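User: Hey, quick favor. My workstation is busy. Could you predict this chain's structure for me?
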Amino acid sequence: MSPCCSMTSSAADLDLARALLIANKDATCVAVRGEEIHVITESGVKPLLKMVMDGHSLKGFSVADKVVGKAPALLYAVLGPNAVFSPVMSWTGRAVLLAAGIATSYDQLVPHIQNRAKTGQCPMDASVQGVFDPYEAVGVLESRAAQMDISL
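Assistant: No problem, here it is.
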């Protein structure tokens, strides 16, 4: 397959992932690689953290995710998709993805992701504020999930 065709395929995959995310109100994340489509309905970083802990990969996938801050971006750096789209992406989330060689697109780029109550920063993003290594972030996020009583 020529390079132009694989780029076109990735672009088509990202367009489909984005469309499916928008069309499915319950979806929080959609991953597409050709005919293979995965729709996640769990919110937060829990499903991504579970994927990493279970040894899954998103290599070759294009992903559309409702919200991407630094914590999910670090997990995507481990999971390795080709591209990530998000309606809302943080500056640090975008920087992490780009540093990992993952193409990014977004509707809105924000300084940080808010917590669900909109009273401060997302607790998962706050827990990795000083972490830059994606594999180190996995352990930090596992610990934070345990503190928040989030079962993985």
